[in-house]
Amino acid sequence: MRPIFLYAAAALGSATIASAPAGAQIGRFPIFSGLGTRTGRCRFSETTPALREQGVQRVVLLVLEGEPSRGVGVGIDTRGDVTMVNTSYSVQAGAHRREGETMMASYSRDGVLKTGARNYGTTGSPALMSEDRRGPLTATDAAAARTLARAVLARCGRG
User: Fold this and answer.
1) Beta partners for 62?
2) Which of 52, 61, 91, 134 is the residue whose CA sits 20 to 30 A from 105?
3) Contact at 8 Å (CB) between 6 and 101?
4) Contact 108/136 with Cβ under 8 angstroms?
């Protein structure tokens, strides 16, 4: 899995905060860990009309170079506040296989989680052995995602 961010996911329904993530593989990867000193590229883009209606005016994307593959997308409103976070983290898991986690969270103007999920998946061959798991964010995950988003904005700026 290479960093892929589905910004339209912010248009999903209300949030579920669980006490523990579902799926045996979810939580194996440090998707909320600090950014460290790895080099990376910051990109800035405008959003779609549908996302602007939900308060996401700009997207700041940080893609770190090297292994493990890691990227973080942060949606911000007109005030520069975090409204959405997407992150992906994956590692090589064999000659033709990758495994990793992604996370998406959407926040209201006052910082309350509206919707979010964590996903674990594998890619590669044989496709029969690939697996996918999905689980809700915990309250701890939601707070850690906002902390990670602030670290991305500190490193990249708000464009």
Assistant:
1) 42, 72
2) 91
3) no
4) no
Query: What's the average model confidence in pLDDT over 11-37?
Result: 60
Residue with tokens 């248009």: 11
DSSP secondary structure letter of residue 157 = -
pLDDT at 19 over 70: no
Which single residue is written with the structure tokens 């990867």?
29
Q: Which of 129, 71, 81 is nearest to 101 (CA)?
A: 71
Q: Are 47 and 7 in contact (CB under 8 A)?
A: yes
Is the pLDDT at 12 greater than 90? The verdict is: no
Q: How many residues does the chain have?
A: 159
Spell out the residues 6+ positions from residue 23 whose beta carbon is closer than 8 angstroms to its own.
120, 133, 134, 135
Closest C-alpha to 148, from 68, 84, 100: 84
Q: Which two tokens stand for residue 147?
A: 């902390």
Closest to 30 in 3D by CA, of 113, 116, 117, 88: 88
Phi, psi at 104, each rounded to 5°:
-135, 135
Q: What is the mean pLDDT of the chain?
A: 81
Work out the end-to-end distance of the chain between its first and last CA atoms, rounded to an integer number of angstroms: 27
The reported pTM is 0.78
